[in-house]
Amino acid sequence: QVQLVESGGGLVQPGGSLRLSCAVSGSMISFYVMGWYRQAPGKQRDLVATISSAGNINYADSVKDRFTIARDSAQRTVYLRMNTLKPEDTAVYYCGARTFGGSEYWGQGTQVTVSS
């Protein structure tokens, strides 16, 4: 049973920073791509950043130059460093992963709130 477990969310003031982590457990399955998505109240879930097994990285325009995605060498943990946070970054952040066979897995989500 594959599990993605997120951590690192919380309350931060505008301009502050947070680092989210997503750890894979339960299986040694390989993923084609891992990434972070977010969903604000009343809105759809949107892509934030992804990183492929080959190291290709993709960011949403709204977070470019502020957020950085990275993973460990074993490709079992993916991180999202978020700098210069804005109130509009407030959302539940989800870790997602897709295998080479097309199966998708999601974490339970972690709340990020940017407010003074």
Summary tags:
7-stranded mixed beta sheet; 54% strand; 116 residues; mainly beta; 4-stranded antiparallel beta sheet
What does this structure look like?
This protein is an all-beta fold and 116 residues long. Helix content is 0%, strand content 54%. The protein has strands at residues 3-7, 10-12, 18-25, 31-39, 46-52, 57-59, 67-71, 77-82, 91-99, 104-106, 110-114. The strands form two sheets. Strands 2, 4, 5, 6, 9, 10 and 11 form a seven-stranded mixed beta sheet that branches. The mean pLDDT is 95.
Q: Could you give the topology of this structure?
A:
Blueprint: E1 3-7, E2 10-12, E3 18-25, E4 31-39, E5 46-52, E6 57-59, E7 67-71, E8 77-82, E9 91-99, E10 104-106, E11 110-114
Parallel strand pairs: 2-11
Antiparallel strand pairs: 1-3, 3-8, 4-5, 4-9, 5-6, 7-8, 9-10, 9-11
Number of strands: 11
Q: Profile the largest sheet.
A: 7 strands, mixed
The H-and-E topology, N to C, reads as EEEEEEEEEEE
Beta-strand portion reads over 45%
Mean pLDDT: 95
Radius of gyration: 14 Å
**Which class best fits the helix and strand makeup?**
mainly beta
Count of runs of 4 or more consecutive helical residues? 0
Uncertain stretches of 5 or more adjacent residues: none
| Amino-to-carboxy terminus distance | 40 Å
Helix content: under 10%
Question: What's the overall geometry?
Answer: globular
